[in-house]
Write a structure and sequence with these properties.
alpha/beta; 345 residues; D-Maltodextrin-Binding Protein, domain 2; nine-stranded mixed sheet; two-stranded parallel ribbon; globular; 2 domains
Length: 345
């Protein structure tokens, strides 16, 4: 399948003020970042290498925060060109980029993904959750008998008789993953408020900001385990723990349905359709960020960005949709932004 209408091999100049002293630009686009975006970026990189005259980009994982940190190290051949992220770049990261000379950044939204809660296919009946269940299981402090206390729960059924009577064991994204931020905001924080814990914290004298921070703090007694690697590490933990619950991206789960079963959230099953409609409550946009200073210097960089978001790739009938990506309803606007090299303001 050739995408000659999308990308052409153009003779690119290697001289640039951003690459002072460089005799020749490297010829491969370098990408790093989100483990959630990794499967999509890998598919695109392989197709890009096969269907254009440019080399296949090098794609690495490491997490959104780690990728953006590398992205913000500066401009030049010894720095990456693209950072994948399962969240928007933060103001402090934009400042770090600017301080290091990365001042023109192109933000590219590729579509949407959902965060799912999955367990061993033949394990206990973890089939339905609400945010309050996850908060009560994993929150550092919870509301019990009208009081805010250190989390006393050891089994899921202790606070919800409809859940399995097995030990709590959850494997959640580490703090450097963009997935963690969505998990905190759309699950823990929501569950904290729904349980009444947020109000009790504030009524007990905590400031609203401190109470909100307390709501997303997770217990540190071994019941909740941060996973700093990618989803394959989470899957490995689930494989060895029949009672384990893992947090995954929808695409990863859909590629491992032979090993995992997924739970509903607020009675909504995660799927491409429920995420596209907004019904599934735990979803988020996915991004990658491009250094404009590297366009025209690193061969194929702009072409890679355009290839990634082309209708044939990121559209609802493209290969990424088959792996769980929900196509961006405003994809045409994203395509125009990249074509015009529009940077963040």
């Amino acid at each position: 399948m050739k995408f000659t209408t999308l990308v052409s091999a153009t003779a690119l100049a290697v001289a640039s003020t951003a690459f002072v002293g460089a005799a020749q630009a490297r010829d491969q686009v370098q990408v790093a970042g989100s483990s959630t975006v990794l499967p999509y970026a890998s598919i695109v990189a392989e197709a890009f290498g096969e269907n254009t005259d440019f080399p296949t980009p090098v794609v690495e994982s490491g997490g959104s925060s780690a990728g953006l940190k590398r992205f913000c190290e500066g401009v030049g051949e010894n720095t990456i060109d693209v950072a994948n992220a399962s969240r928007k770049i933060r103001e402090k990261e934009i400042k770090a980029c600017a301080d290091a000379g990365v001042k023109d950044i192109i933000e590219v939204r590729i579509g949407y993904d959902g965060i799912v809660f999955a367990s061993q296919k033949d394990g206990p009946a973890f089939t339905a959750f609400e945010p309050v269940d996850v908060f009560n299981a994993l929150g550092a402090k919870v509301l019990k008998d009208g009081q805010i206390v250190d989390n006393p729960y050891n089994k899921w059924a202790e606070f919800n008789a409809d859940l399995p009577d097995v030990d709590i064991a959850a494997f959640i994204p580490g703090t450097k993953h963009g997935t963690r931020e969505v998990f905190e905001e759309k699950v823990l924080a929501v569950g904290c408020e729904e349980s009444g814990a947020l109000k009790a914290m504030i009524d007990g004298g905590m400031s609203e900001d401190d109470a909100e921070d307390a709501c997303i703090a997770v217990r540190r007694d071994g019941k909740s385990v941060d996973i700093d690697g990618d989803y394959t590490e989470t899957l490995a933990r689930i494989d060895t723990n029949p009672n384990g619950i893992g947090v995954f991206g929808l695409a990863f789960y859909e590629n491992n349905t032979d090993k995992l079963k997924v739970a509903t959230m607020n009675e909504i099953a995660p799927s491409t359709e429920t995420i596209a409609s907004g019904e599934y409550p735990v979803s988020r946009p996915l991004y990658f960020y491009v250094k404009k200073a590297h366009i025209g210097v690193i061969p194929g960089l702009k072409e890679y960005a355009q290839f990634f978001i082309a209708d044939e790739i990121a559209g609802p009938s493209g290969p990424l949709a088959n792996y769980g990506l929900v196509s961006d309803p405003e994809l045409a606007a994203v395509q125009a932004s990249v074509a015009n090299e529009e940077t963040m303001q």
